[in-house]
Amino acid sequence: MKPCVNREGERGVEENSPWLAMGFPCTGANGRIEIKGTYNSPKMISFVLGTDCGMNPDSAVSVERMVREKLDLPENSRLLAFTPFVVQYWEVPGFTDADIGFAIELRSSAAIDGNWKRFTGNQPLHVKLYGRENTWVQGGFFYAAEGDLRITGRNTFQMKLTSVKKLSPEEIDEVKGRCDQLKPKRNCSDVFP
């Protein structure tokens, strides 16, 4: 609900204001795992989190129904848009693996040796994702999302989202600082506002 102030200066909400929702890739359908090298001895492993990977819920109708049930929104308030989250930078906590882009790529031997064996043994891979809604919004927000990638097939995975938050300008600077320290240099200024 859009916050507003009436003529008397009292805060409130406009009951019929439209609202927005954001979905996350690979939460409703299998994502692709791409392997360089062999399955049992990979040199690089990519988990592709593109906007073409199915979201859960998978449609604006499903989102509207779910949100109405959980938040008890008035009937005259409508979903204006349901847009996907675009991964622009990612990190694998506890490892040096991090990069810009929407494909999580395990390159370091530590990440591959430890994580790949655990992942194929049905243990989740915890990841941090940073990005925006896939829409042109004036003053758009930058978000941090955390989730667990779980194997669903030999070359497929799904993501279980564990948290999402809008980043403050200070938090954005902190994440950008980590991006700027990557070797070789990445074009972090194109990603971060």
From TrEMBL:
It comes from Planctomyces bekefii. The lineage of its organism: Bacteria, Pseudomonadati, Planctomycetota, Planctomycetia, Planctomycetales. This is Uncharacterized protein. It comes from the Bacteria.
